[in-house]
Amino acid sequence: MQVQVLVSKRRKSVALLISSTLLLVALAACRHAPSPDVMATVNNKDILRSDLDKAYNTYKSAQGEAPQGPSPEQADIVRLNLLRQMIDDEILDQRAAKLNLAASDEDVNAKLTDLKAPYTQEEFDKQLKQQNLTLEDLKQRIRRKLTSDKLINKEIDSKVNISDADISNYYTTHKSEFNVIEPQYHLAWIVVTTGPTQPTGNLQNNKATSDADARKKIQTLRNRLTTGGEDFGNLAMNFSDDPNANSNAGDMGFIAETALQQRDPGTFAAIEKLKAGQVTDVLPVYGGAGPSQRAVGYAIYKLISREPAGQRELNNPSVQQTIRQGLRESHGQLLKAAYYEMLRDDAKVRNYFAEQILKQGAK
């Protein structure tokens, strides 16, 4: 009798174990087989096919019309890269939300008002249409940029400390870099181009649609500087088409006098008349060289300082500023790279689109 009871209990235990195992397998299957509309998950937050398709269409619009469309493989490579960026953006958004650093509606609306300032409502709507963006899409982009900036400022930028000793050590090691053989012009610029659409690096990521549109935009920006008293660097970051300078408030760095003359004598003549802090009138920007040179847009230049030839000493404020800025940027980039990797390590990410491509390729 006792043996039968033990056997019965054992059978029930085995049955329960099998049932539990089957349930776990079923749950695992559910986790591994999401909706076809889910391209990836970040800490169980879905990134949908519709969002990836929208990002891909925006990317295609930014590249302009191509005589021949991309192959399926090329298109999927672009989608994979875009999805990776969307995953990283979601990781940053979740981190910012955890730290209560998400941009507010007031922040977004204030930035939107600033972006719309150079345009009529009709022109602004046209810009959105050309980029396949709705107003809500743009607000989402603004919110993400502002949130990312707040997060990086708190987690990285606020912790970068460059000491006087760091500056002195750098100068001692790189003293020859500050021995200039001809006058140097420290410049910043705001440029509006009319060439083929490429990513601009500014928050709007748009281009003027015509030569007249470019001239009107740059003239409006100059008026905001001269009559509205707005900050040059802020306008450069928001509206200029130079991705290499926008993140640094339009700062072009130091340019040798000869190089500036060779680039464009007319521009050099206008800059040479400036005092530190002044800006030029609207000037054409040329591309190409020799007979093929042609106007590709318009710019306004700000003279930050003019440095004479010779050895610039460590006690020169511009030397210290240049070194401090360079050290902050290089150290900040290193910390950001490490910070992003740390966030990726901590996040639970599943890229179903990548898995699907590998699965299809193995057939």
- Which percent band covers the strand fraction? 5-15%
**Strand order of the biggest β-sheet:** 5-4-7-6
Number of helices: 14
Count of strand segments = 9
> What are the low-pLDDT stretches, counting only 5+ consecutive residues below 50?
20-31
Termini gap: 57 Å
Organism: Telmatobacter sp. DSM 110680
Protein name: SurA N-terminal domain-containing protein
GO molecular function: peptidyl-prolyl cis-trans isomerase activity
Coiled coil: 121-148
Could you give a quick summary of the protein structure above?
With 363 residues, the chain is an alpha+beta fold. The chain has helices spanning 2-32, 49-63, 72-98, 105-116, 121-130, 135-155, 164-173, 211-226, 232-239, 243-246, 257-263, 265-272, 317-346, 352-361, and strands at 38-42, 45-48, 179-180, 184-193, 251-256, 283-287, 294-307, 310-311, 349-351.
Describe it.
- The chain is of the alpha+beta class and 363 residues long.
- The chain folds into three domains: 1-33; 38-157 and 332-361, Triger factor/SurA peptide-binding fold, CATH 1.10.4030.10; 182-308, Chitinase A, domain 3 (Roll).
- It is built from 14 helices and nine strands.
- The protein has helices at 2-32, 49-63, 72-98, 105-116, 121-130, 135-155, 164-173, 211-226, 232-239, 243-246, 257-263, 265-272, 317-346, 352-361, and strands at 38-42, 45-48, 179-180, 184-193, 251-256, 283-287, 294-307, 310-311, 349-351.
- The strands form three sheets. It has a four-stranded antiparallel β-sheet, with helices on both faces. A three-stranded antiparallel β-sheet has the order 2-1-9.
- A hairpin with a 2-residue loop joins strand 1 (38-42) and strand 2.
- Helix 2 (49-63) crosses helix 3 (72-98), helix 3 crosses helix 6 (135-155) and helix 4 packs across helix 6 (135-155).
- It is globular and about 65 Å long.
- The model is unreliable at 20-31 (pLDDT under 50).
- It holds the Pfam family Rotamase.
